[in-house]
């Protein structure tokens, strides 16, 4: 029994020391230009806080900001004058590729791509 105790304690300690970090991206949905107002957050303690921080930052530059995506690893936002897209994933490249794919236009470009801890 004592042989199982040490590994079990080590596992429980590692689980309890894990703390998730969240990020989010917000955009001004009234701005249809190629460079709309946006805000992002990373390394926040909850999804709700990450979204609020991103919206608050966006509101410094735009009037109708809404969080469009939250993520635990990486997130990205792409746009053109008529379309936008967002993505998330394990890498900045994956999040960006998903954002461009969702945007769906050859004129789409990455506006912001961020990852936790980078």
Task: Write a structural description.
The protein has 118 residues and is an alpha+beta fold. It has one domain (19-115). Helices cover 34% and strands 34% of the residues. It contains three helices and six strands; from the N terminus they run αββαβββαβ. The protein has helices at residues 2-17, 47-58, 92-103; strands at 22-28, 38-44, 65-71, 74-79, 84-89, 109-115. The strands form two sheets. Strands 2-1-3 form a three-stranded antiparallel beta sheet, covered by helices on one side. Strands 5-4-6 form a three-stranded antiparallel beta sheet. Strand 4 and strand 5 (84-89) form a beta hairpin. It is flat. Mean pLDDT is 85; it is low at 1-18. This is DUF4189 domain-containing protein. Residues 22-115 form the DUF4189 domain. Keywords: Signal.
Please name the defining characteristics of this protein:
34% strand; 3 helices; single chain; disordered N terminus; 118 residues; DUF4189 domain-containing protein; signal; 3-stranded antiparallel beta sheet; alpha+beta; DUF4189
Give a nutshell description of this structure.
The protein is α+β, with helices and mostly antiparallel strands and 118 residues long.
Layout of helices and strands:
Blueprint: H1 2-17, E1 22-28, E2 38-44, H2 47-58, E3 65-71, E4 74-79, E5 84-89, H3 92-103, E6 109-115
Antiparallel strand pairs: 1-2, 1-3, 4-5, 4-6
